[in-house]
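INTERNAL AUDIT FORM
Audit reference: QA-55
Scope: verify that the stored structure record matches its stored sequence.
Auditor: D.O.
Record contents follow.
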Amino acid sequence: MQRLEQILKDYKEGRRELSDVLTYLRKLPFEDLSFARIDHHRKLRRGFPEVVYGEGKSAEQILSIIRAMKEFGSNVLVTRVDAVKAGHILENIDGPVYHPVARVLSYEQERVIPRCRGIVQVICAGSSDVPVAEEAAITAEMMGQSVERYCDVGVAGLHRLLGIWDELQKGSVYVVVAGMEGALPSVVAGLVRRPVIAVPTSVGYGASFGGVGALLGMLNSCAPGVAVVNIDNGFGAGYLASVINEGGLPPGEARPEGEGAS
């Protein structure tokens, strides 16, 4: 919305040609790249641009999407990008940053600043869960959230979680990532008063069934206030945490100073 307002203001004040405005508006619903239709309108509807799922797309396809979004002025987030694809992309376009642990590419054209005072806390049970937790954390940061990370505080050593008790009380919404039996979200939800988003990971031995064991454990949590996303879906958890932390904030609108989740 801010970019559209700026373009119209530039045209009104004679700094932009009518043809530029019409080109922008023509692309606004979506841009057809033959293999993809980029939903440029999504930021107006949802407050954040379309996020690109990189797995299954070639490096050239991802490059084409990034270039189109760059031309439109959007920030870009691409998930599930392996190191080989990322290397090719970074060699052919300036600007994106690759986060290898999360396998995420981000491109910040419009500076991202925290939009409310609430804190998204991303907590993971074990070091093997960190890639999914980082995907959640980077997603929330790109959406304008302040993020705190806490790693390796799983239930096999509960004293580690209790050791950050004071820090936990400062969170506004929690993304809790765990594999194996998936018990950590229930424990966290029993210690805090705000929403917990549980993320099951595919980490575990045979009977974990690639994360299904953790998923079922989280869905059956006896602690209230727990919502569950799909297996390994750090992006979905980070996005949902951001929406919750905004507390009904209209898309793209900054909250007045002093207000926000607490």
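Auditor finding: record pair retrieved intact. Residues 119-246 form a domain with the Rossmann fold fold (CATH 3.40.50.1970).
Action required: none
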